[in-house]
Design a protein that fits this description.
There is one protein chain. This protein has 3 helices and no strands. By secondary structure, it is an all-alpha fold. The chain has a domain of 39 residues.
Length: 73
């Protein structure tokens, strides 16, 4: 019996391992259905909002505040 490779192969009837570590459930793999048209519409909305608020973000000028946190003492 090889004690180093023993942990890789757990027997489902090993009551001690199940008690200590719980049972490993194998994940069920589902096929992901991505609606690319909805994804592109969401990206377009986000980019539109960013371009709308970009002048306001630039007016705030957070660079002094950011540099204060990044400054090494």
């Amino acid at each position: 019996m090889d004690i180093f490779n023993r942990n890789r192969e757990r027997n489902t009837d090993d009551h001690f391992s199940n008690l200590m570590f719980g049972r490993k459930n194998e994940p069920e793999q589902e096929e992901a259905q991505v609606d690319y048209m909805q994804l592109m519409a969401s990206v377009e909305t986000l980019m539109g909002l960013y371009s709308q608020y970009k002048p306001t973000i630039d007016k705030i000028n957070l660079s002094p505040l950011i540099s204060k946190f990044l400054k090494k003492e």
